[in-house]
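Researcher: Let's try something more involved. This one mixes different molecule types, so please make sure each is placed in the same coordinate frame as the others.
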Amino acid sequence: DAKTTQPNSMESNEEEPVHLPCNHSTISGTDYIHWYRQLPSQGPEYVIHGLTSNVNNRMASLAIAEDRKSSTLILHRATLRDAAVYYCIRGSYQLTFGKGTKLSVIP
Amino acid sequence: GAVVSQHPSWVICKSGTSVKIECRSLDFQATTMFWYRQFPKQSLMLMATSNEGSKATYEQGVEKDKFLINHASLTLSTLTVTSAHPEDSSFYICSASPLSGRSTYEQYFGPGTRLTVT
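Model: All components are placed in one shared frame. Result:
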């Protein structure tokens, strides 16, 4: 049970921002929200994680709803290299992967 | 930083033989390493959690006598698939969490090992 809900797929135009939503309505107080992405035939890549406050790093931003029941991963300017499956995971140090969102980037 | 390697990247073996896969954290120490399996067009499934110097904890449905895990140091964990069968053919991926600090909640994944059992 992945315990998060994400759209199966999304599309974005290159160089435009992308907002990837995730619903985690049953999240507990100690669960972090993690985002990873995976390119075909590669291991997942860490993107970002957060607990309550919004987080920024060089790859993306994570906006967490005030009630923590949902979050949004923001890629500020999509590139072709960002095309991947994005996984939103709630938990601590052990990760349960769901099906994720397959992001396609259109040149 | 935070690089995890796996060896081999792909392996083909005959049914009934054993295969060992190595997972190394190259530039950090990891108390905990994780092993996942991924079948085609499916998501990653956690197989086991491996802590340095102690026995691995296996997920429900994963045979511990078939998938032997050894975590002998803070930078190396191995997964041995014993008496492999065609249904064990899969993409095996390891990950490692840094020893301390905020980044302990970050897992760094290896590139994966493609196992094909003929």
